[in-house]
Design brief:
By secondary structure, the protein is α/β, with parallel strands linked by helices. The chain folds into two domains: 27-160, no CATH class; 177-300, Glycogen Phosphorylase B (Rossmann fold), CATH 3.40.50.2000. Helices cover 38% and strands 13% of the residues. The protein contains ten helices and ten strands. The protein has helices at residues 2-10, 12-48, 60-65, 67-73, 107-118, 155-160, 213-220, 234-243, 253-261, 289-300; strands spanning 51-56, 78-83, 123-128, 136-137, 183-186, 207-209, 227-228, 246-249, 265-268, 283-286. The strands form two sheets. A six-stranded parallel beta sheet has the order 7-6-5-8-9-10, with helices on both faces. Strands 3-2-1-4 form a four-stranded parallel beta sheet. The relative contact order is 0.12.
Length: 304
């Protein structure tokens, strides 16, 4: 630390070189101190076992993002997924969430997620984790010595070496006819793009918000004609998103579901943390207001 401070004060080039070398050494230490062995173990399991059990402890969107990988592996294996509740959230992650949140997923969120997971045809079994035998712990993606400010759906491929076709659906649900031709919206208050406002949506009809009630009330200040539906679980949320004209949202569980379903979708991307990228047809993201209004109009006029 003294050497780093000395270089910072006296020699900018030396400081940057030293800082870079420290970062490289840290990443190499992570790989060599256990992770390299875990990666080899995962590869051997995929090559040699016909039935594979996966564990994931959340967040919600991270679990949905693991499904393309599991779907790909299920082409030649029988796959089960176990979801763990109440895994402690490390202190370094807590500022991303509300201060009251001390775990990745509580029991309520797991119970709301499992009905959606049980609908997936490529999953042989889905259960809450209660010390069942696990072959591949997908939580290991958090230990990867990489820059996490990249497309988060690819983290599991970097962990396992398995690369699904991300242009294909990885979520499958039936439609809810009551929401046909509605614009389905979820906007998290945590990842708002500061360049964007939604006030122009008052010129459109059939706008349905299906996220948290407090998020709905926040957006309704700008969009007075916005309606609200309180979903009983994430299966119902997915069915509604599947049924709508298109989905609009910022980085959140709602957008991850829309991406998995491959419905027409519009992502208000987050400049500070760009980890989601639309892949496939009728899928767009934006940073700036003019683009937002043009893309929204294009999708609104899209024939069902």
């Amino acid at each position: 630390m003294l050497k780093k401070l000395f270089y910072k004060l006296t020699n900018k080039r030396k400081y940057l070189e030293y800082k870079s070398q420290i970062s490289k050494n840290r990443r190499l230490n992570i790989l060599k101190n256990g992770l390299e062995g875990e990666i080899s173990k995962i590869q051997n399991i995929i090559l040699n076992k016909k039935e594979i059990s996966f564990l994931h402890s959340g967040h919600l969107g991270d679990i949905i993002n693991s499904l393309p990988l599991i779907q790909k592996i299920s082409e030649n294996h029988r796959c089960s997924l176990y979801v763990r509740a109440n895994k402690a959230l490390p202190i370094k992650y807590r500022f991303y969430k509300n201060s009251k949140d001390l775990v990745f997923l509580d029991d309520k969120n797991v119970d709301m997620l499992i009905p959606l997971l049980k609908c997936q045809p490529f999953l042989h079994k889905v259960e809450k984790f209660e010390n069942q035998k696990i072959d591949i712990n997908l939580d290991l993606f958090r230990n990867l010595p990489i820059n996490f400010n990249e497309d988060n759906i690819r983290w599991y491929s970097l962990l396992t070496g398995v690369h699904p076709d991300l242009s294909k659906p990885s979520l499958f649900v039936k439609e809810n006819e009551s929401f046909k031709n509605k614009v389905i919206i979820i906007r998290s208050t945590r990842r708002k793009n500061i360049f964007i406002n939604y006030k122009f949506l008052t010129d459109y009809k059939d706008l349905i918000f299906v996220g948290l009630k407090e998020e709905y009330l926040d957006l309704k200040k700008d969009v007075s004609n916005l309606e609200f539906h309180d979903c009983r679980d994430f299966l119902e949320m997915a069915e509604i998103i599947k049924s709508g004209k298109f989905f609009l949202g910022n980085p959140s569980l709602g957008y991850v579901i829309a991406e998995g379903l491959k419905v027409p979708r519009l992502l208000e991307n987050f400049p500070e943390y760009h980890v989601m990228n639309p892949v496939g047809s009728n899928a767009y993201d934006f940073y700036f207001q003019d683009h937002f209004e043009k893309l929204f109009s294009d999708l609104y006029l899209l024939k069902s």
